[in-house]
Design a protein that fits this description.
The chain has 463 residues and is mainly alpha-helical. Among the domains are: 24-180, no CATH class; 298-442, no CATH class. 68% of the residues lie in helices and 1% in strands. The chain has 20 helices and 2 strands. A two-stranded antiparallel sheet has the order 1-2. Helix 3 packs antiparallel against helix 4 (71-87), helix 8 packs antiparallel against helix 11 and helix 17 (364-377) runs parallel beside helix 20 (427-462). Pathway: Phospholipid metabolism; Lipid metabolism; phospholipid metabolism.
Length: 463
């Protein structure tokens, strides 16, 4: 493990333990304590680079105060432009930010864009209430516009400040205003979320030791046989998954211990977004709670779902919610594949400027187009047993597609990524294009048959 990963691990462990203490604090004390702890972590790990996050917060607050109507688009432009400056600061003679500053900046970008949208929704609903004399139908909307202090406290709240999960401002406020946090579930769900972390961690260390990423960049690796080179990406993606499974389960446990994101099950909460329906728990009835709002990873479904498009839903789930609500609806395209491509492009930019991100993320729409074509032209014609076999093959190809794309994500450089992909003959792109071609051919044949059948029916009626 790198020194940075050890620090991340220490912060995660400390956050889980400290979280239980926060349940004993009043709302005002909880807000101040969470802010001070978050600022301490930020300054200790980022130093002077803390100013980047502060400028981002102040800029967003100013945009909201000046023009709340355009705040969603203005905040997106501001935070994403600042991300560009943040990644190119060395061009201006400024010191390169630390990895910790980068992690904080990424999550803060999501928070600020979400905050601007929440404030916009608050003012819009307020105007509707005044003009129509009806109450807002928005679930868990803001009750007032947040002050600068509120925004800073939300931005630097210690919970998930580096590791996530992403949480909306309203989720943060609900946490502060919990009436009886000590009565909410904590230890049991926390242990449940942590029980597999030692396994994930051990597998990460063991497989990473046997299959180091650095070996892929050597000439010796390229001299290995094709099947070894192909298998290597499977091992690398396995290491990648174990690393994030451990980190995100730990981050979720930090939220659970503090009681953040805890809502009644009847609220039907979504990861990242929170409650989706209004709820009024009966005081005389035992209430069941869950932490779906802060769930960032579904390890089982991430591995065993069948489709590429579904794999994204179970990975980094709170960020996927953010992309789905703030980026996907505003894409300048209508078809699903192109909208997905636009969303993946924005996601790649959010992750960084390395070419490997773009090569990987922009392969996803191609895979989606391929699986869509095969489902419509092949799977739809099969019986139950045939569809079951089709799904198993589909799952296998889905996992190999993610193995393949992971290499761009971890190698980062365009040359390293293309060198590896070329060493296995760009197999995923070739399979995807073949599937699209087969789908189009079979689709055309199906149309011809349908037209012939209609013509026969018409002739029969005429006779």
């Amino acid at each position: 493990m790198s020194p940075e990963e050890i620090v991340y691990l220490e912060i995660l462990a400390a956050s889980i333990l400290v979280g239980f203490l926060f349940r004993y604090l009043s709302p005002s004390v909880k807000r101040v304590a969470a802010l001070l702890l978050g600022l301490t972590i930020t300054i200790a790990t980022c130093g002077i680079h803390t100013l980047h996050s502060l400028f981002t917060v102040l800029g967003t607050w100013l945009l909201i105060k000046i023009n709340w109507r355009s705040a969603p688009s203005l905040s997106l432009g501001w935070t994403f432009l600042y991300l560009l400056f943040f990644r190119l600061v060395t061009w201006f003679g400024l010191p390169d930010p630390t990895p910790f500053a980068n992690a904080i900046q990424l999550l803060l970008t999501l928070k600020m864009v979400s905050l601007a949208n929440e404030v916009h929704s608050y003012h819009s609903e307020k105007k509707k209430e005044v003009s129509s004399f009806t109450k807002s139908t928005v679930v868990r909307g803001l009750s007032q516009e947040p002050s600068l202090y509120d925004i800073i406290a939300y931005s630097y709240c210690y919970v998930g400040i580096m590791t996530g999960p992403f949480l909306r401002y309203q989720t943060y406020m609900d946490w502060l205003q919990q009436s009886s946090p000590l009565s909410l579930p904590g230890i049991a769900p926390c242990i449940q979320r942590l029980q597999m972390v030692p396994v994930y961690g051990a597998l990460f260390l063991a497989v990473n030791y046997v299959f180091p990423l650095s070996y892929v960049r050597t000439e010796e690796f390229l001299e290995q046989n094709y099947f070894y080179r192909f298998f290597y990406m499977i091992a690398i993606f396995f290491v990648f998954r174990m690393r994030f499974y451990a980190a995100w389960c730990g981050a979720e446990a930090g939220c659970i211990s503090a009681g953040l994101g805890c809502y009644p099950k009847e609220a039907l909460s979504k990861p990242g977004g929170g409650p989706t329906v209004k709820y009024n728990p009966d005081p005389d009835t035992a209430v069941e709670y869950d932490f779906k709002t802060i769930q960032n990873i579904d390890c089982y479904n991430s591995d065993f779902c069948v489709k590429v498009r579904h794999g994204m839903r179970y990975w980094n789930m709170t960020v996927q919610w953010w992309l789905h609500h703030y980026i996907y609806p505003n894409a300048p395209f209508r078809t699903y594949a192109l909208r997905a491509g636009w969303t993946m492009l924005i996601s790649a930019y959010w992750h960084g400027l390395h070419a490997g991100y773009y090569l990987s993320f922009l392969t996803i729409p191609l895979c989606i187009a391929a699986e869509t074509a095969m489902e419509a032209s092949v799977r739809a014609r099969l019986g139950p047993k045939g569809q079951s076999i089709f799904d198993w093959v589909h799952w296998f190809l889905k996992m190999r597609a993610y193995d393949y794309m992971c290499m761009g994500f971890v190698l980062l450089k365009a040359s390293d990524t293309i060198n590896y992909w070329s060493s296995i003959y760009f197999i995923i792109q070739i399979v995807a294009f073949v599937c699209i071609g087969v789908g189009q051919i079979m689709k055309g044949g199906r149309k011809d048959r349908s037209a012939g059948e209609k013509e026969n029916v018409t002739r029969g009626k005429a006779e």
